[in-house]
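Q: Entry one of two.
A:
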Amino acid sequence: MSWVCAVSLIAAGSVSNARAGCRDDIAGARHIGAGEFCVLGFCLYRAELWAPKASIAPLSSDIPFALSLTYERSLSGARIVSTGIDEIQRLATQPIADATLSAWRDAMRRAFGDVSRGDELCGVYLPGRGARFYLNGNVSAEIDDPAFAQAFFGIWLDPRTRAPSLRKQLLGGN
């Protein structure tokens, strides 16, 4: 169940109500889809996807998007980072160098603190640049690494995600 916590914690996204800072990073942002991430009846967060086009192919195009998570449970920043790194490694098509993982871990520590019920984390995918993260509407970190951004948002949007029904809902499906 640690991947569940990590995914929920790692999820970059605070836009249940789409706080201005995060959504404003996406010109013409539209709500694409939303869903809850629950395990064994415990809902960890509500996720929402915002983008300038009604239909996007995440991580395979030059379309920016924002992924927000509004938490239903308290989680430590350390747990979010640990789970996120585990999921990034699981989804990698080839091993990721230790130095790269260390740098990504440090960047994630800057971006994600502890969260409580009602807190929002929002991650903005910046194609070709990296990602910007918000905690409760305030910028918490900018990570200028396109490979990190693709790996991170893949936790939710890669077809091999551990939460395929949430992915489908985020992308506008039922």
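Q: Entry two of two.
A:
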Amino acid sequence: MEILREEIVTGKLPPGSPLRLKALADRLGMSMMPVRGALLSLESLGLVEQDPRRGARVGSFSLDDLYNTYEARLALEVLAVERAASRFTDEDEEKARKALDEHTATAANTMASREAHTALHFAIYEAARSPWLTKLIMPLWVNSERYRLVSIPHRGDREARRLEHERIIDACARRNPRVAARELSTHLAYTANLVARELGGEDMF
């Protein structure tokens, strides 16, 4: 599943690409059963669409999907960062800053950069001490990653992106839920609006 997810998220398999079981099984060197299971798992993450007549395909980009994904992310992740900010420990701050350093040190659009970015955000969300919140956030996060990659060339330099994350961590470290929520909302909405414009739409948030 990890290979297929990476190919979909990075655009190696573009939106709308057919995902035929036998061809995938042959290419990946496995039987069709685990490939079928992988496609079902990826469908639950919003990365694959199943059609009884056309079969499985890579999920399409759409303004509706973008809006629904980020609307849910804003609700859940803002709640998570508010709770995290009220409970943030020195260990939580150290974990988040280490992930931020790794994200800053890696080149944009690489797997290492995406892994560090994920580690950074979830170091913060896990500080909320709410396992259900992180479980609910994860599928939305995975689906939005392919949209986020569209925004990277238009976000400005990496220092600007680092400062966005720095402000979120600083607010949590100061135990200020209101500011942490505001900074994260701005961060997520900015990405969603950039992608919306790239897809021919208008700002959403």
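A: Comment on entry two: The first strand starts at residue 48 and ends at 51. The chain has a mean pLDDT of 92.
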